[in-house]
Amino acid sequence: MHKYTLPYNVVDLRGLACILLVAYHVVGVPGAGMQVADGSIYRYATDSFELIRMPLFTFVSGLVYALNPARGDRLRTFFVKKLRRLGFPFLVVSAIFFLLQKSAPGANGTHVPDSMWTIYVFPYAHFWYLQALFLIFSLVALLDAARLIERMGGYAVAMAGAVAACLTVRTESNILSVNEACFLLPHFLLGVGVTRFRDLVPRRALVGMAGMALALGVTLHQASLWGFLPHFGWNSGVALLCGMGGAVTLLHAMPSSRFFRTVGASSYAIYLHHALFAAAARMVLHRMHTGDGMIFCVSLIAGLCGPMVLEMLAQMRPWSRVALVGKA
């Protein structure tokens, strides 16, 4: 394999993904978050990005992973780093989140598990993504270590299998968020492919195909939001069109922006901790009977800026760097 560099504004794109994510959790699902009506513009706006948000995050992870992929001679080192990056914050931050939910039910969602051990085995709050992403990293690392997706032929077979799993796999228990891992795997592999094989597909053709996929996916998704078509879940062809088409289109359309780059540089800390800060701001403003517009804006800012400050403070001690933001 060769050493690659990316001619894209990837950090800026991560910043956009963070903003979409925090905005979604500020609005929340029915019965939680801002508790706006189903017909609210806030819910419509966040629902419109439902099939793009997490695929975009995962696509970017695949892009970056492909710059320094797993190799057979350092597979152990790769997994140790991923456990430190994903595992320790998952154990610590999800426990803090769980204990806060127990002390303030409804502050960060409606469902609080009865037993703490279940948050480490089954999907819990937004931490399901860490479980799913670790499964994805593990699978792709093993494929790379065996040199099975190094060339286009093997990669195409892996992508076909990933798409099939996305459309068909749905377990009842959903241990370690395996359902979500199957849904997101094609998007991760797409990121790997865009980095690894970008010289094989002309940029104009790639962007054109992505734009058409996105346009078709968004049209169908909007039709479902307006009630003309049934709801499309994450494991649907429409979700693949929106997620994959949207990721590639945004990758090429994303401008260089200091604001988005600043947010993107702290994307992991924001993902881990945004819910706590956004919920705190939202609860205070609700008690003050503030309007929805102010609640949304202030909670969004709190969900972005709070984790950035926490990340700076966590850097001061080795244990807090690892436990709270997954840094060595």
Automatic annotation (TrEMBL):
Its main location: membrane. It is a multi-pass membrane protein. InterPro entries: Acyl_transf_3_dom (IPR002656). This is Acyltransferase. GO terms for biological process: enterobacterial common antigen biosynthetic process. It comes from Azospirillum thiophilum. The keyword Cell membrane applies. Belongs to the acyltransferase 3 family. It comes from the Bacteria.
